[in-house]
Specification:
heterodimer, A: 362 residues, flat, B: 453 residues, alpha+beta, four-stranded antiparallel sheet, 16 helices, 52% helix
């Protein structure tokens, strides 16, 4: 019944979209509550403003002759004006929903303390400025890791039990340590002892004028962080993929195909890669989402001017709009990708039927 | 259960698992020793430092074993005070004060210069007097030459005289104290890098004029360049304390985190899948919301806005991880297991819901849980370290991550204090690898589908 299927499909789509959307809203609202310390941050801001207003008025020589009661009133009035300018005169509960709607509408508002290199206070610009550096570093590293582990895993699954297979398996525990941890060692060896590679940052200072030299400098600065990330996940990744492919190549239909006398390449492409595609795609999509947040710690260790570093600076200065802005971008991306994944499954894996959702595999 | 123990016994065939278990045993032994040798409050007191706790330690000193790798004999810290040997002469002065004189003697036989020289002087009086104590310090070199380091320096009850920071030495002897006072004063014009320390017995003569009711004591510390098994940090703290205490903290953090999240997720997803309907839907929705909340950023926010307590961080991280990826994975497995014939049978003879969940459903998946659980431990250990590296470590607890963070903020690598970074990092790595080695071996033992390949 194609008609009934289409209807079910539509219902399923709507339900998934709505629940995923609700998930983003709830997650964002929780973020907003945390960042504002449940409204306590507003109190802190108010007292900060009052203090600066008070010092400005009392240190002004023009006010020296005024009686204290007048000065007190002046401070109060000026502070109230300032509260109203920053919206601090309203209840936090109301403000929190305003934050939520600005966040959801993606007009991310203006930063409180941080500004972009061009001097803009717009959160959107600040994020846009940092995004390329995160993308270039984590894009390179993750794509490298993804395709390298895929290829190595596939190759190892066909060489099950050989010395190279055993080597990779025995090296898998090295991935217990995350990339930033290897980063520290790499900095120790190549920057501190050998002094051949830079300590961190994205380009040498001052940045070269020539675009080619600029690119070369960026590449040079990328060597250590990319190596660190690869070291942090290559072996366990390859091990995981190898095991995964091994399990799939022990399925009956693979044996049948083998018995039919198919070449190993055809076997690999049609009978092993095809059914594993959904999982591989999931891995890829989740990796792409993971890119956005970069690795905050890795960016800190290598002083890389990306989104993770921005996020960290924003929390350090309690810059609520920027924190929320970064989280919004992340939340949307994650929600959209999870939503899309369901359909990709349906397209590439005929075994997963788009029904009530009980058959979902992730 | 017996099947699981049988499988665990099979671990003996894997050298990596045996090695990993041995390492874990060693770490546990270190933890037990640490907790007994340095009780918790004592560890916190030591790590906080403060006046008097680490005064006699050199700053940024390498561990003593670095001496084995250098051709020169590296200086160790020399502490001399007048309580140990030497005679103290006291003579009254006509103005009602008295003069106290004594000499501090020490041998210097090292091939490099010390790192710092400090004189701690004390003039304890029964009552507060308006009169000041004045004292002079005369430095006598092994070759008999003398140099007046300070004359008539005034102080009240106590003073730390940082001799190596005294600028008059640079003026008169051409180098800061630690170099000037350990070379022949005649070498004034020779730049520091061309000097070699003068070996032999040094004498520091201290003469003080003190109020009648006061006493005068002094302690000279010639700080070395190596100290202790692990070296010291920028606040003179002995790193051994942090390295030792980091072990139980890392193990507890890792194990509590891993056991907590894995077991809770496992049980909840089992219950959710078994009961289905709204329970399952609720758990799925929570998971959906939770997956959109990125964990590390939330932890950073908590650390920045609320508290940096290690245990609060652990609690938050666990809360965020319970409804995470594991929920989805386990659910898929439970959905399969739920349809198994033996569960059908259990239901047929009238077993209660909870009995089915805990006696039949959960045990079936335990083999999958075990490797995953062991492999989660390192991620928690490194999570703590990572938070500390971001500067969000617990301010009072001495953890490995905190040591790395201190080292980074003091530019340890740039200045060449490699031990400061390498020691905690190696310990972290050993812990991570140990659990990970066991985990991967377990994975191979408990993954029966692979063994048929």
């Amino acid at each position: 019944m194609p008609g009934g299927n289409a209807l079910r499909f539509l219902r399923y789509t709507v339900v998934r979209a709505v629940t995923q959307g609700l998930a983003v809203i709830v997650a964002l609202y929780i973020t907003i509550l945390i960042v504002n310390m449940g409204g306590k941050l507003d109190d802190i801001r108010r007292s900060e403003i009052k203090l600066s207003v008070a010092t400005a008025i009392t240190t002004n020589p023009a006010n020296a002759d005024l009686p204290p009661s007048v000065i007190k009133q002046m401070i109060e009035e000026r502070a109230q004006l300032e509260y109203r300018r920053l919206g601090l005169d309203r209840n936090f509960f109301v403000r929190s929903f305003e934050y939520l709607t600005t966040a959801l509408s993606l007009s991310l508002g203006r930063a409180e303390y941080l500004f972009s290199d061009s001097g803009s206070r717009e959160v959107r610009r600040i994020i846009a400025e940092r995004l390329p550096s995160t993308l270039i570093l984590f894009g390179t590293a993750n794509l490298l890791i993804f395709f390298l582990t895929l290829w190595v895993g596939l190759a190892l699954s066909r060489r099950y039990g050989t010395w190279i297979d055993r080597l990779v398996v025995s090296l898998a525990p090295t991935s217990a340590a995350p990339g930033w941890f290897y980063g520290i060692f790499l900095l120790l060896i190549f920057a501190a002892v050998l002094r051949v590679l830079p300590w961190g940052g994205m380009v040498s200072a001052p940045p070269p004028e020539n675009p080619w030299l600029y690119a070369a400098s960026v590449l040079l600065h990328m060597i250590l962080p990319v190596t660190a990330m690869v070291m942090g996940s290559f072996f366990s990744g390859a091990y995981g993929r190898r095991t995964f492919f091994l399990i799939f190549s022990s399925e009956d239909y693979v044996d049948l195909a083998k018995a039919k006398g198919l070449s190993s390449r055809a076997l690999q492409n049609r009978y092993i890669l095809r059914p594993t595609l959904p999982t591989i795609i999931t891995g890829f999509v989740l990796m792409v989402i993971g890119l956005w947040f970069g690795a905050i710690i890795l960016e800190t260790v290598f002083n890389w001017p990306g989104i993770g570093r921005l996020y960290y600076q924003a929390t350090n200065t309690s810059d609520t709009p920027v924190v929320v802005g970064v989280m919004v971008v992340y939340g949307y991306l994650l929600a959209i990708s999870v939503f899309l994944l369901d359909f990709i499954y349906g397209v590439v894996d005929p075994r997963v039927r788009v029904t009530g959702g009980t058959q979902r595999r992730l | 259960m017996r099947r699981i123990f049988q499988m665990l016994r099979e671990l003996r065939r894997y050298p990596s698992a045996v090695g990993g278990l041995a390492l874990i045993g060693l770490l546990v032994a270190i933890s037990i020793y640490t907790i007994i040798a340095i009780p918790y409050p004592e560890a916190i007191r030591l790590w906080r430092g403060g006046p008097g706790v680490w005064d006699d330690n050199p700053r940024n000193a390498a561990p003593v074993w670095t001496d084995l790798f250098t051709a020169d004999r590296l200086p160790r810290t020399i502490v001399v005070d007048n309580a140990q040997g030497g005679t103290k002469t006291v003579e009254p002065l006509p103005d009602g004060r008295k003069r106290i004189e004594f000499a501090l003697r020490f041998d210097y036989a090292y091939d490099r210069f010390p790192s710092e020289i400090v004189l701690f002087a004390q003039a304890p009086a029964a009552t507060e007097t308006p009169m000041r104590t004045r004292y002079s310090v005369l430095w006598r070199f092994p070759n008999g030459q003398e140099y007046q380091v300070a004359s008539s320096r005034s102080m009240r009850a106590s003073e730390s005289y940082y001799i190596s920071q005294d600028l008059s030495l640079v003026q008169n002897l051409g180098a800061t104290g630690e170099y000037a006072l350990f070379t022949d004063p005649a070498m004034k014009a020779v730049p520091v890098k061309d000097r070699a320390p003068l070996k032999g017995e040094y004498t520091v003569v201290i003469r003080a004029e003190v109020p009648a009711e006061a006493d005068f004591n002094a302690k000279l510390v010639v700080y070395g360049r190596i100290h202790g098994l692990a070296g010291t940090d920028h606040r003179r703290r002995d790193l051994t304390v942090a390295l030792l205490w980091g072990t139980p903290l890392a193990l507890v953090f890792g194990l509590v985190g891993a056991v907590g999240t894995t077991v809770i997720t496992f049980v909840l997803s089992g219950i959710g899948t078994w009961f289905g309907r709204w329970v399952d839907t609720l758990f799925q929705r929570i998971t959906q919301v939770n997956m959109v909340i990125p964990t590390l950023p939330v932890l950073i926010m908590i650390g920045q806005f609320y508290s940096r307590s290690l245990w609060l961080m652990l609690a938050v991280f666990m809360a965020l991880s319970i409804f995470g990826g594991g929920m989805v994975t386990y659910r898929a497995m439970f959905l399969q297991a739920k349809e198994a014939p033996y569960i059908e049978a259990a239901r047929a003879y009238g077993a209660k819901n909870m009995r089915i969940v805990f006696r039949y459903l959960l045990p079936r998946i335990i083999p999958v849980l075990l490797p995953a659980f062991v492999l989660t431990v390192p991620s928690f250990v490194f999570l703590e370290a990572g938070l500390a590296v971001l500067g969000l470590g617990d301010p009072i607890l001495p953890t490995w991550g905190k040591v790395i963070n201190d080292a980074q903020s003091q530019d340890a690598l740039y200045k060449g204090y490699y031990y400061w970074v390498v020691e905690p990092a190696l310990l972290l790595m050993i812990t991570g690898f140990a659990f990970s080695m066991v985990g991967y071996a377990l994975d191979r033992v408990f993954n029966p589908r692979l063994r048929t390949v």
